[in-house]
C-alpha cells in the first residue's frame, strides 16, 4: 500500500489493535480442564501495527514500520492495546433530583406502589427536572458525563423524557446540545417524550400522545434538537396503538425510531419497531421468537441493559441464545437513569453483561463498539478501527480486550483519542510515566 504522509499526520506506532472489524478473523487456542479448544476470535486483532491518523479520521492501518515516518509525529505505545472508543448507546443522563432515598425505602420493604402514591417514582424525577433550570441540569449532568468520558466513552446517546411537555423537553434537549458543544464526545440526542404519561394527562394518555405527535415532536425536530424518536411501549407506558401513532408521525418526517420494549411483558413492541425499520429495541427481557425473527429481517439492533436487570433484581434474562441463533446484533449500554440503573460506568455494565446475561467478552466488546454504533445509525463511521472511520480510540495499559472488563476498580486508560486528538484529562500523568519508562529502558509488563 502506497501512502504519502503529511507532516500533520500522526502515527500511533507498535500497537496491538483490537479493530472490531468483522472482516478480520483471528484464531485462538484455549485450555479448559486439560482440553485444548480452538476457535475464532471476533476482536479483529492485529499485532504490531501502526494506526495512522489524518485530521479526524483513520488514514490507514499497516504493520509497524511499513511506511516511512518523514516528519510525522510518532507515538510509540509499546505494544499496548488500542480499541475503538466505547459507545454508550442508551442513556437518560440529563435529569434533575435524586432517587437514592426511594431505593433505600424499597430495600427497607416499602413497595413501589406506596412510594409512587406519595409522589415518588418517575414522576418525582419529572417534577425535579421541570423545577430545575437548564444551568442546574447541565451542572449535574456534566458530572455524570465526566465519569463516562474518563472510562473511555467517545460516543453517547442521551434521551429526553423527564420533561413531558414542550417547554421542558426542549430544555432537556438544549442541555444535551450544550454538553455536546462543551465536551470532547459525540452525543446522539433522542426524543423520549413518550416515556410516561405526565400527571396532567393521567386519565387521558391518548390526548398526551396527540400533544407529542402534533406539537412536541414536529417543533423540536424543526429545531434540530434530536436524531431519533423513542417510546416506552409497555403495560405501564404506552400501548401498541399509541406507539404506532408516534412511529407513523416520525416516519412522515423521516425520523428514525427505536423503542423500550418487552421489558416487563410481551406486547409485540419489537415487531412494531422492526416494521418501521427501527434502529434498536431496548431491554427485551420478554422478547419471544416471533419478535426475534422480525428483528433479524429488519436488521434492528437488540440493546441489552444489564444495569437495570441488576438494580431491579429481575430474574428473566433476555433470550440470548435465540438472538445468537437468528444473528441479531446485540449492543450493551449503561441505561444510566435515576430509577433503575444509576451506573455511570460502561466497564461495569460490560462485566455485568458477561456475568448476568452470559455473553462472551467478544460479544460484549462488539456490543459497545460496532453494534452500538449501528444502534445509533453510525455503523459506517464509528465503532471500528478501519481506514475512513472516525479516529475515536483508546490506548489501554493492557494486553487483551478481556482485561478491560475483568478487573474493575482502577482505570487502565492511557490515552483517550477523540477525532484524532488526545483528550483524556489525566493523560499528562500517564505521559510522564511513559517517558520515565522510556528513558530508563524499563520494560512495562
Which labels suit this protein?
36% helix, 16 helices, alpha/beta, disordered C terminus, 445 residues, eight-stranded mixed beta sheet, eight-stranded parallel beta sheet, globular
Quick overview of this protein structure:
The chain is α/β, with parallel strands linked by helices. It has helices spanning 100-107, 112-117, 122-130, 134-150, 166-182, 205-222, 240-252, 269-275, 289-298, 306-311, 320-325, 346-357, 361-367, 370-375, 402-406, 427-439; strands at 10-18, 26-32, 35-41, 45-54, 57-63, 73-76, 81-84, 86-88, 153-159, 186-194, 228-233, 258-261, 280-283, 301-304, 330-332, 393-396, 413-418, 421-422.
- Count of helix runs: 16
Strand content: 15-25%
Query: How many strands, which pairing sense, and closed or not: the largest β-sheet?
Result: 8 strands, mixed
How many E strands? 18
Radius of gyration over all CA atoms, rounded: 22 Å
How would you portray this structure in words?
The protein has 445 residues and is of the alpha/beta class. Helices cover 36% and strands 22% of the residues. Strands 1, 4, 5, 6, 7, 16, 17 and 18 form an eight-stranded mixed β-sheet that branches. Strands 8-9-10-11-12-13-14-15 form an eight-stranded parallel β-sheet. It has a two-stranded antiparallel ribbon with strand order 2-3. Helix 6 links the parallel strand 10 (186-194) and strand 11. It starts with 9 loop residues before the first strand and ends in a 6-residue tail after the last helix. Mean pLDDT is 92; it is low at 30-37 and 427-445. Its main location: cytoplasm. Belongs to the metallo-dependent hydrolases superfamily. HutI family. It is found in: Cytoplasm. Its EC number is 3.5.2.7.
Amino acid at each position: 500500500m502506497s501512502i504519502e504522509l503529511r507532516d500533520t499526520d500522526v502515527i500511533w506506532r507498535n500497537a496491538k489493535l483490537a479493530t472490531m472489524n468483522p472482516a478480520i478473523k483471528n484464531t485462538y487456542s484455549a485450555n479448559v480442564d486439560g482440553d485444548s479448544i480452538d476457535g475464532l476470535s471476533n476482536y479483529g486483532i492485529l499485532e504490531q501495527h501502526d494506526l495512522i491518523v489524518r485530521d479526524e479520521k483513520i488514514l490507514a492501518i499497516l504493520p509497524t514500520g511499513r511506511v516511512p515516518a518523514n516528519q510525522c509525529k510518532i507515538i510509540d505505545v509499546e505494544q499496548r492495546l488500542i480499541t475503538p472508543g466505547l459507545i454508550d448507546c442508551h442513556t437518560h443522563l440529563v435529569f434533575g433530583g435524586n432517587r437514592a432515598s426511594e431505593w433505600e425505602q424499597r430495600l427497607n420493604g416499602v413497595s413501589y406502589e406506596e412510594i409512587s402514591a406519595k409522589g415518588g417514582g418517575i414522576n418525582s424525577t419529572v417534577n425535579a427536572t421541570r423545577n430545575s433550570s437548564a444551568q442546574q441540569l447541565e451542572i449535574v449532568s456534566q458530572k455524570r458525563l465526566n465519569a463516562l468520558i474518563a472510562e473511555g466513552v467517545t460516543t453517547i446517546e442521551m434521551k429526553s423524557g423527564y420533561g413531558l411537555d414542550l417547554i421542558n423537553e426542549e430544555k432537556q434537549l438544549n442541555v444535551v446540545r450544550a454538553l455536546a458543544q462543551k465536551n470532547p464526545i459525540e452525543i446522539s440526542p433522542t426524543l423520549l417524550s413518550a416515556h410516561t404519561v405526565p400527571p396532567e394527562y393521567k386519565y387521558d394518555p391518548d390526548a398526551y400522545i396527540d400533544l407529542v405527535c402534533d406539537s412536541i415532536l414536529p417543533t423540536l425536530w424543526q429545531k434540530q434538537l434530536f436524531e431519533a424518536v423513542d417510546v416506552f411501549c409497555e403495560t405501564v407506558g404506552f400501548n401498541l396503538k399509541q406507539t404506532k401513532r408516534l412511529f407513523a408521525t416520525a416516519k412522515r418526517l423521516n425520523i428514525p425510531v427505536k423503542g423500550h420494549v418487552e421489558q416487563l411483558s410481551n406486547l409485540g413492541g419489537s415487531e412494531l419497531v422492526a416494521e418501521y425499520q427501527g434502529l434498536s429495541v431496548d431491554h427485551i427481557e420478554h422478547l419471544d421468537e416471533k419478535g426475534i425473527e422480525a428483528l433479524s429481517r429488519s436488521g434492528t439492533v437488540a440493546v441489552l441493559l444489564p444495569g437495570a436487570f441488576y438494580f431491579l433484581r429481575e430474574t428473566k434474562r433476555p433470550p440470548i441464545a435465540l438472538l445468537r441463533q437468528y444473528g441479531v446484533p446485540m449492543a450493551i449500554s449503561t441505561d444510566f437513569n435515576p430509577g433503575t440503573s444509576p451506573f455511570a460506568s460502561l466497564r461495569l455494565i460490560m462485566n455485568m453483561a458477561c456475568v448476568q446475561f452470559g455473553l462472551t467478552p467478544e460479544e460484549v466488546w462488539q456490543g459497545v463498539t460496532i453494534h452500538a454504533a449501528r444502534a445509533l445509525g453510525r455503523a459506517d463511521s464509528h465503532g471500528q478501527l478501519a481506514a475512513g472511520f472516525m479516529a475515536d480510540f483508546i490506548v489501554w495499559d493492557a494486553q487483551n480486550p478481556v482485561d478491560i472488563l475483568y478487573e474493575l476498580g482502577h482505570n487502565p486508560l492511557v490515552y483517550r483519542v477523540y477525532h484524532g486528538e488526545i483528550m483524556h484529562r489525566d493523560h499528562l500523568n500517564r505521559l510522564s510515566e511513559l517517558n520515565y519508562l522510556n528513558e530508563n529502558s524499563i520494560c512495562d509488563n
